[in-house]
Design a protein that fits this description.
The protein is α+β, with helices and mostly antiparallel strands and 429 residues long. Helices cover 55% and strands 15% of the residues. β6, α14 and β7 form a beta-alpha-beta unit. The termini are far apart.
């Protein structure tokens, strides 16, 4: 009975150190630092241990290894001979030395089972569930064990470092930091297990992708930009501003590429004098011009530093390719922020029937080719509107409706605004 009690104690010690290893290494550094700052003595001891993770792991390993060695040695010495005696008395026709070897193997297997279940697996699972509680609870014990085993740990550390140097590895070299890919994998796992909400998952993914997005992918493209023309009257300006309700409008001269400034509607509506001269003086700011290839994270940082909220994208030829706001950048991070009253944007391509679709002029020509199943000049045109322009060989007039046929398609243009095809019905022949 005493032998069994001693084995239970050794398995228990194995369990303590195995759970301590998982609990301490899984402990949140932020939480630990907070407790240290609050003067928690247990947290202080724990922090001293993990400041040198290699030494802490060596201490734990020494304790677990010693417990395992003692279990095996004690069990073999205590139970092997009695088991052999029982087998011989039972008339087993096997030499005693062979029986003893078999008995040791059997005892080791049985002991390993109990050690793995009760000394390793169960305690480690508990440590993962109650990380903070167990880590802090065992801080004093671990600190004491670390002091006791310090000479042995020092010897093991020196030996390990020597072997590493012989292998061409520097022991002082910093461990690899957690990579973006590893965080993405943890994020996926947390989402699948329900620990992280879908919205949170998407937001974190957006953060990682933010520095890879060029601003021309999230801007309002040139064809959709509402502008104020110098040649228009103040009354026409006011009508445009009230009808569209944007906060900023590019002011252009002779063409859309001739950017004069940007009108801020907050200043506009605070001004009683709506004469062109006064509006240009008090409400129109210098345009903030950026290359269309600029990354979203760079632009956001610059807009914060310069305290600007509206930027104009310039292509490689010096022409305006679109506009972007701080609102657009934030949406790229957190998702759609459209007001409930804002009309829902129609689908780029909507199936109406067999081999028949309603296609918006702004729809990607690549998507149109894939949907319709007809080869289209995607190398030449980006949008469906540009494709129709190319077919017609001219710029359509506002309000114009017309039909164009190819060998494979019948295209019925429904509306044209600002010389841009807004939508069309496409039938496959």
């Amino acid at each position: 009975m005493q032998a069994i009690v001693l084995l239970i104690i050794l398995i228990f010690l194995n369990a303590v150190f195995a759970s301590a290893e998982i609990a301490v290494l899984s402990m949140s550094e932020t939480k630990l630092k907070k407790l240290v700052g609050e003067g928690d003595r247990r947290a202080l001891k724990l922090n001293n241990l993990i400041e040198q993770p290699a030494r802490f792991l060596a201490t734990i390993q020494v304790a677990i290894t010693l417990a395992g060695f003692l279990q095996s040695a004690f069990a073999a010495d205590t139970f092997a001979d009695p088991l052999v005696t029982v087998l011989l008395e039972a008339g087993v026709p096997v030499p005693a030395n062979v029986l003893r070897s078999a008995a040791i193997v059997l005892i080791t297997i049985i002991l390993s089972y109990f050690t793995l279940v009760f000394g390793e697996l169960v305690p480690k699972r508990l440590a993962m569930k109650k990380t903070e509680q167990m880590a802090l609870g065992m801080a004093g014990l671990l600190y004491f064990v670390a002091k006791v085993f310090a000479p042995l740990v020092w010897l093991l550390t020196v030996s390990t470092n020597l072997v590493l140097r012989l292998m061409g590895i520097s022991p002082e070299e910093e461990e690899d930091q957690v990579t973006e890919e590893e965080i993405r994998m943890l994020l996926m796992e947390g989402s699948e297990q329900g620990n992280i909400q879908l919205e949170e998952t998407q937001m974190i993914r957006n953060v990682f992708e933010f520095d890879d997005i060029p601003v021309d992918e999230i801007c309002t493209h040139r064809r959709e930009v509402v502008m104020l023309y110098l040649e228009d009257t103040p009354e026409e300006w006011e009508e445009v501003i009230r009808n569209h309700r944007y906060t900023h409008y590019p002011v252009v001269g002779e063409s859309q590429d001739d950017i004069v400034g940007v009108l801020d509607t907050k200043d506009y509506f605070r001004t009683d004098d709506r004469s062109r001269e006064n509006i240009m003086k008090r409400c129109v700011e210098e345009p903030y011009l950026i290359p269309e290839s600029m990354k979203a994270n760079v632009l956001l940082r610059q807009m914060k530093e310069k305290k600007v909220y509206f930027a104009i994208l310039i292509d490689e030829y010096g022409g305006m390719s679109g506009v972007i706001t701080d609102h657009d950048l934030i949406e790229a991070l957190v998702g759609d922020l459209n007001d409930a009253e804002e009309p829902e944007r129609p689908e780029d391509i909507r199936k109406l029937g067999e081999d028949c679709w309603k296609i918006q002029g702004s729809a990607s020509l690549d998507e149109g080719e894939e949907t319709v199943g007809v080869k289209l000049p995607t190398d030449t045109f980006d949008t469906f509107s540009g494709y129709i322009w190319g077919l017609a060989g001219r710029v359509p007039d506002d309000g114009e409706r017309f039909v164009w046929e190819t060998d494979e398609l019948e295209i019925r243009v429904l509306s044209v605004e600002n010389h841009v095809i807004k939508e069309a019905i496409v039938r496959k022949k």
